[in-house]
């Protein structure tokens, strides 16, 4: 192309053989299967056909072209060859926001397809993207998130669904969390990070005995279950505790708290034994940890409580539940996503007490295992001090800002040793003043929204029993087909495999992906068969509560 190509004072195409130069760049790119090649401003598409020809042997690689300038997008749309436009491995978009691009990638190619990202500079168009590095980092984080979700689902997916089936028996007895409201009253949302201790100490000084009981406080307290022991030590009774953890170490959070009577927001996938420890009212919610057909059936049957966005962190859930319960001001504290050499959680939390118990001449109180791990890095806290964090904590901190950064008009954080959360940080005195002055008691906490009528319970019990018997029939037919007791019908088998996707959604080769099992694969059918009997026992217990249950933990 003679004369090159310039736009907004930047030379995007060379005067000398721009197509040849782009082809040579495409030839020099290292081709690794599972790579998403990000091409900023492809212009006339030079080099893309050469690249696609090299990707023919890489089934899980693709090219995403971004042309955010309207004039340049029109050029690319008009000059791209039919080969480029028809290729399933290439997409051209005018979007440049990370969220929109992540949604586009999942829509076009699905989740867990790509393992890495590589930026491809075929011309000078990349100069038009000053935020290219940030966009590149965001896409890399999203790819890593997909694989992290897959590993979590492979490890815990079976436990999540088993917990949920056992917890379905709670639905006729306890209301959904959307039956609870704090009206316009302010909420103090507490995590269990190290910065919680000075906040609780300041609460006692500022409010005295009035801070201890919900009836005398001018605000509400929503806390994660891990900080309940720290509250109990100071005589502070929360208005609501968030119970989310699905594994047995969650019971450590309730040591010494049996029958304390703190109301709890309980996730259906949480450890069933945790539902009864506090001996108080439960408000149920549901977090869809992946896409399963059984969720659709439960919703259709009217057996699902209010749904919450899956956030992965009980601290984030405390903020999300608070946002749902009140239209007033929310102050967060103890949601740190950081730690220090001698403090990982607040005092009296299970991990802190465990370190105290283990201390002797040979074991220090310092948390050296966490502090000197290879992935740990130094960070700056809200007050400018040095703290420690890790990639997992940093991810949740970024997720907090993404989820709640737009709520700056009523969501605030208290200054402390935690990482900045992307919302306004207040001093302790400013935060406590807000909790008092912003108290709107009109349409406040409704204590009558915590029970179900007898008719509601009877109707819900009948629905649950019918649903459980339906699942038993479904699983029994699937088992009979796989064992040869029923005639093989591949159409019926395919339908049952899709409907009973909770049997295999945690398999490592399918977890957190859009891939459907190959019914011709004998190895898959054998694994599927091994999952059926434990779930039959769970559904039997749900349909007939007095039926004996063989342990499936």
How would you describe this protein?
The chain has 553 residues and is α/β, with parallel strands linked by helices. It folds into three domains: 5-130, 3-Layer(aba) Sandwich (Rossmann fold); 171-437, no CATH class; 454-543, no CATH class. It has 17 helices and 17 strands. The protein has helices at residues 18-28, 48-54, 70-79, 82-86, 98-109, 132-167, 196-207, 228-233, 293-300, 314-325, 350-358, 368-371, 391-404, 428-437, 454-483, 490-499, 522-543; strands at residues 5-7, 10-13, 35-40, 62-66, 90-93, 116-119, 187-190, 220-224, 240-243, 264-267, 282-286, 306-307, 330-333, 377-380, 386-389, 411-414, 425-426. The strands form four sheets. The chain has a nine-stranded parallel β-sheet. A hairpin with a 2-residue loop joins strand 1 (5-7) and strand 2. Helix 1 (18-28) packs parallel to helix 2 (48-54) and helix 15 (454-483) runs antiparallel to helix 17 (522-543). The longest helix is centred in the N-terminal third of the chain and has 36 residues, at 132-167.
């Amino acid at each position: 192309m003679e004369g090159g190509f310039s736009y907004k004072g930047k030379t995007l195409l060379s005067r000398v053989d721009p197509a040849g130069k782009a082809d040579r760049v495409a030839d020099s790119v290292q081709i690794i299967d599972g790579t998403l090649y990000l091409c900023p401003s492809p212009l006339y598409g030079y080099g893309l056909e050469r690249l696609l020809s090299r990707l023919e042997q890489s089934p899980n690689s693709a090219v995403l072209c971004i042309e955010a300038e309207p004039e340049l997008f029109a050029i690319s749309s008009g000059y791209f060859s039919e080969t480029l436009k028809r290729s399933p491995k290439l997409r051209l978009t005018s979007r440049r926001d990370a969220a929109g691009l992540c949604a586009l990638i999942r829509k076009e190619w699905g989740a867990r397809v790509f393992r890495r990202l590589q930026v491809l500079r075929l011309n000078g168009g990349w100069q038009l993207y000053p935020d290219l590095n940030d966009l590149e980092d965001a896409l890399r984080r999203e790819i890593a998130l997909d694989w992290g979700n897959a590993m979590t689902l492979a490890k815990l997916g079976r436990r999540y669904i088993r917990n949920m089936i056992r917890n379905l028996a709670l639905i006729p007895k306890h209301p959904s969390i959307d039956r609870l409201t704090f009206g316009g009253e302010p909420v103090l949302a507490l995590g269990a990070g190290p910065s919680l201790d000075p906040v609780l100490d300041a609460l006692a000084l500022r409010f005295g005995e009035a801070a201890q009981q919900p009836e005398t406080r001018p605000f509400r307290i929503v806390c994660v279950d891990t900080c309940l022991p720290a509250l109990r030590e100071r005589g502070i009774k929360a208005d609501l505790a968030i119970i989310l953890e699905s594994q047995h170490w969650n019971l450590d959070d309730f040591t010494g708290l049996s029958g304390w009577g703190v109301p709890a927001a309980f996730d259906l996938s949480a450890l069933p034994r945790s539902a009864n420890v506090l001996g108080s009212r439960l408000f149920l919610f549901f977090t869809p940890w992946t896409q399963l057909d059984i969720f659709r059936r439960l919703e259709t049957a009217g057996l699902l409580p209010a749904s919450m966005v899956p956030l992965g962190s009980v601290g984030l859930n405390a903020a999300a539940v608070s946002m749902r319960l009140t239209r007033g001001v929310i102050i967060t504290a103890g949601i740190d996503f950081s730690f220090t050499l001698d403090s990982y959680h607040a005092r009296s939390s299970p991990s802190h007490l465990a370190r105290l118990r283990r201390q002797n001449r040979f074991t220090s109180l310092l948390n050296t295992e966490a502090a000197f791990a290879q992935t740990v890095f130094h960070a700056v806290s809200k007050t400018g001090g040095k703290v420690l964090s890790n990639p997992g904590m940093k991810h949740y901190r970024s997720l907090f800002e993404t989820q709640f950064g737009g709520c700056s008009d009523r969501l605030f954080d208290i200054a402390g040793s935690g990482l900045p959360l992307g919302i306004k940080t207040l001093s302790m005195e400013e935060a406590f003043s807000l909790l008092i002055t912003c108290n709107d008691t009109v349409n406040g906490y409704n204590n009558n929204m915590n029970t179900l009528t007898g008719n509601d319970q009877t109707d819900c019990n009948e629905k649950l029993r019918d649903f459980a018997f339906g699942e038993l029939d479904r699983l029994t037919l699937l088992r009979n087909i796989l064992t040869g007791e029923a005639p093989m019908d591949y159409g019926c088998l395919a339908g049952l495999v899709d409907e009973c996707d909770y049997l295999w959604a945690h398999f490592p080769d399918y977890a957190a992906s859009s891939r459907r099992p190959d019914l011709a694969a004998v190895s898959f059918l054998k694994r599927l068969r091994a999952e059926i009997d434990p779930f039959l026992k769970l559904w039997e217990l749900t349909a007939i509560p007095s039926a004996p249950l063989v342990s499936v933990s």
